[in-house]
Design goal:
The protein has three helices and twelve strands, in the order αβββαββββββαβββ. By secondary structure, it is α+β, with helices and mostly antiparallel strands. The strands form two sheets. Strands 1, 2, 3, 4, 5 and 6 form a six-stranded mixed β-sheet that branches. Strands 7, 8, 9, 10, 11 and 12 form a six-stranded mixed β-sheet that branches. InterPro entries: SRCR, SRCR-like_dom_sf.
Length: 267
């Protein structure tokens, strides 16, 4: 009986050792994998490119139904909350096609943990089948220090920072209207790329109102066509949107989404 227990113990030890080695190999493999979105209309969408063993290439769209869980894994690797859509790329890629048959369950840490047909096993694939995904909103901010940064994403405001002003235009009352921001001496509208009540709370504070009542969007720009700010991210406690995280102050002739921020503040 003792001899039998000893054998069982040895077998369990060997099995555990195999599991540990497999996990270590998987972690090392996953570290070699990176993804990016390119040729998209905004930072959160585009053709998926994957880096495997130091080489960037595309993913071939599976002939099976494209599951949103696969987009979830790709988007989470890029620090987005989840995937919104998966399909065929609008702009074909170039270079190698590295992967096909990708079919994730949604809980994987990396696409390399998902079922697929094997790396470089892409016979029959063409770039017209390159995968495209759309991720939800803006990237999640893992470091709270980033939410306190200045205008260019990783710099603090200084004395040389141009003053930022805001106003609400075209409303029936002074506390409501299309949001306009003056940056570097020029007024522009704001693209509504995933703005939320925390962002608008800062706007109302800058205008001297006690809080925000409503956030809406409009699909036209009757005042001017210059647009500032994409993917703004405030905590709600800032005294100015210049203290919020964003993708940088960039002049745009129009919003790709066609939607602009409309604010109503509490009085």
């Amino acid at each position: 009986m003792v001899h039998f227990s000893f054998v069982i113990g040895i077998l369990l030890l060997v099995f555990t050792s195999i599991q540990v080695r497999a996990t270590v190999r998987l972690d090392k493999q996953s570290m070699r994998i990176a993804v990016r979105l390119v040729d998209g209309r905004s930072p959160n969408e585009g053709r998926v490119e994957v880096r495997y063993n130091g080489t960037w290439g595309t993913i071939c769209k599976s002939k099976r139904r494209s599951y949103i869980e696969t987009a979830d894994v790709i988007c989470k690797m890029l620090n987005y909350k989840r995937g919104v859509r998966i399909g065929t790329a609008l702009v074909k890629g170039t270079g190698p096609i590295l992967l096909k048959g990708l079919d994730c369950y949604g809980g994987e840490r990396s696409i390399d943990e998902c079922p697929h047909d094997g790396w470089l096993n892409t016979n029959g694939c063409h770039h017209r089948q390159d995968v495209r995904v759309i991720c939800h909103g803006r990237k999640l901010v893992k470091n709270t220090i980033r939410r306190k940064v200045g205008l260019q994403g990783n710099q603090r405001p200084s004395a040389q920072t141009p003053p930022i002003k805001v106003r609400l235009a075209g409303g029936k009352t002074a506390n409501t209207g299309i949001l306009e921001v003056r940056y570097n001496g020029k007024w522009g509208l704001v693209c509504n790329n995933d703005w939320d009540m925390k962002d608008v709370q800062v706007i109302c504070r800058m205008l001297g109102y006690p809080g925000v009542k409503k956030l809406k969007t409009t699909n036209f720009s009757p005042f001017n066509c210059r647009s500032w700010l994409v993917n703004n991210s405030c905590t709600g406690g800032e005294s100015s949107i210049g203290l919020c995280s964003n993708d940088g102050w960039k002049k745009r002739l129009f919003c790709m989404s066609g939607k602009y921020v409309v604010v109503t503040c509490k009085t």
